[in-house]
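Batch job 17 of 40 flagged for manual review because the log was empty.
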Amino acid sequence: MKLPATMRVFERGWLSSNNILFDGGSGTALVDTGYSTHAAQTLAMVRHALKGRPLDRILNTHLHSDHCGGNAALQAAYGSRTAIPVAEADKVREWNVEALSYKATGQQCERFGFDETIAPGDLLVLGDLQWQALAAPGHDPHSLVFWCADERILISADALWENGFGVVFPELEGESGFAEVRATLELIATLGAKLVIPGHGAPFTDVDRALQTAFSRIDYYTADPARNAQHAIKVLLKFLLLEKQAIPLPEVETLLGGMFLFHEANRRYLHKSDADLAQWAVAQLEKAGVAQLRDGVLLNRD
């Protein structure tokens, strides 16, 4: 399925989320801005695509660091009006890094401001098309997805990927998340989307298969919440490795041990010493072929 002429997707990978650029008579806009260490790359791609035009607006589906880490750089370059999920407004206004999850995950995000908020049900005009913001809690309690009914295109953020969805972070802190993931998937199933643009990975059209995979995964996590915790620990370490590319082995425990979510997941579900859990995470990444231990240094492998 071809995208409308007023839309362009920058597929980024796993450190930075995908970015969706819109143009047209309604102005230019970018949905999600990637991770802070990729901000210069994001800015270069946007400048190249816009060919001298300004970036009028930035919109964030949610405020995990890999989706909003480029906000500050783009705001500095363009003065773009920025819209964030309404439930995050006070946290951003006060720049509460604990509530915004950056400290809890050991991730970076340069401080940014906002001009307006987006609430579930709001209608947006992007690329001369009408989109509706829909609540998509689960991975993040305040996440939104954007739905274009006329084109049957869903910008799904981390609520639905081709092979799953993002870590269910609320459950790591003893809050409800699995039920919200299921409800979000059930909502998506009612839309009849022809094309999904996920937060990570290529856009896809086999939405029924993706939903089947996602429902199977949430069943798996619900049956044993420790599975979600184990997955989260691996993701947190892999994200660090994507950012740093190489981590001396003694620093792995220190970096993970500095994360609130590492301790919460361990305390509630995994019950290991920090050292044992860090060693387990390293072994899991090696086993999966996404990291390699060489001369006492953990190296990233793509």
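Reviewer: the log was empty due to a logging misconfiguration, but the result itself is present. The chain has a mean pLDDT of 97. Unflagging and moving on to job 18.
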